[in-house]
Write a structure and sequence with these properties.
The chain is α+β, with helices and mostly antiparallel strands. It folds into two domains: 115 residues, GTP Cyclohydrolase I, domain 2 (2-Layer Sandwich), CATH 3.30.1130.10; 163 residues, 7,8-Dihydro-6-hydroxymethylpterin-pyrophosphokinase HPPK (Alpha-Beta Plaits). It contains eight helices and 14 strands. Strand 10 and strand 11 form a beta hairpin. Helix 3 packs antiparallel against helix 4. This is Bifunctional folate synthesis protein.
Length: 284
């Protein structure tokens, strides 16, 4: 991720350290925070809600420095990083805690610790293909995603009739659940790159295709961390996932407790599956 917000040189007085006089008298600490996030939505919309308030981040830092005494600045850095990652838009964070008055015992310029922490966000990706050796293509696509996703679990392949479009062969479909440290936009770019590698072209709406990778859900609706977006390039959650048996059936197989936001309601995928036709779904 290349977009960053830097908040450098936040100074506050705290009582962190191992020695009794450090806990009694206190000293100044200086903190640098670099947030990694996708700034494109904020840049395009000029909307504060689509970025992170550095004023709020600064207040969080001061509260930690002025808070309960810790022995180690490593622990202080960890707490500050955790506060930053609690903000849904932040994908990763670098925190440096400087202790310029540390009792080192020799002349020195600075003492600091730096930690880098990243958020792993749960994602759901639907896969489909109906040209060539579809099952082999889908498995190759999962492999090609590489380090874009982690902890991948793929549902068994199913075949289904096409929905809309011209006459064409049956589809092979699956769903994978995983985690990612990429932003929604970055992950979408990776999905499109894998599609292109397998010869995907977008010429006929709902036409036959060598590979189709759809980002269905980003985040977890159960704790409200799922991203809700309605933009020309990406709508989240996928606007038609709740009515597609070829998504719901494999998804429920790989994650029986899965949920999906439909409108303003969070619903179990298994319940949604019971409401759609599944007569055409056959397992390979």
């Amino acid at each position: 991720m290349t977009d960053r917000i830097g908040l450098l040189g936040v100074r506050a007085r705290g009582f962190h350290g191992v020695l009794p006089d450090e806990k009694r008298d206190g000293q100044d600490f200086v903190v640098d925070v670099v947030l990694h996030l996708d700034l494109a939505p904020a840049g395009a919309s000029d909307d504060l809600e689509r970025t992170v308030s550095y004023a709020e981040v600064g207040a969080d830092v001061v509260a930690r420095v002025e808070g309960p005494s810790l022995d180690l600045i490593e622990s202080l850095a960890e707490q500050i990083a955790g506060d930053a990652l609690a903000r849904p838009l932040v994908r990763a964070v670098d925190v440096t805690v400087h202790k310029p008055s540390a009792p080192v015992g020799v002349p020195f310029g600075d003492v600091s610790v730096n930690v880098h922490r990243r958020r792993e966000v749960p994602v759901v990706i639907a896969l489909g293909a109906n040209l060539g050796d579809s099952a082999r293509t889908l498995q190759a696509a999962v492999d090609d995603l590489g380090d874009a996703v982690r902890g991948v679990r793929r549902a068994p392949f199913v075949t289904t009739e096409p929905v809309g479009g011209p006459d064409q062969p049956r589809y092979t479909n699956s769903v994978l659940v995983a985690t990612t440290s990429l932003s929604p936009g970055e992950l979408l770019e990776r999905l499109h790159a894998v599609e292109a590698r397998h010869g995907r072209v977008r010429e006929v709406r709902w036409g036959a295709r060598t590979l189709d990778l759809d980002l269905v859900q980003y985040g977890d609706p159960r704790d409200g961390s799922d991203v809700i977006r309605d933009a020309p390039e990406l709508t989240l959650p996928h606007p038609r996932a709740h009515e597609r048996g070829f998504v719901l059936q494999p998804w429920s197989r790989v994650d029986p407790e899965a949920v999906l936001r439909v409108g303003g309601e969070v619903r179990r995928v298994a319940e949604l599956l019971a409401e759609v036709a599944t007569d055409d779904i056959e397992e390979l």
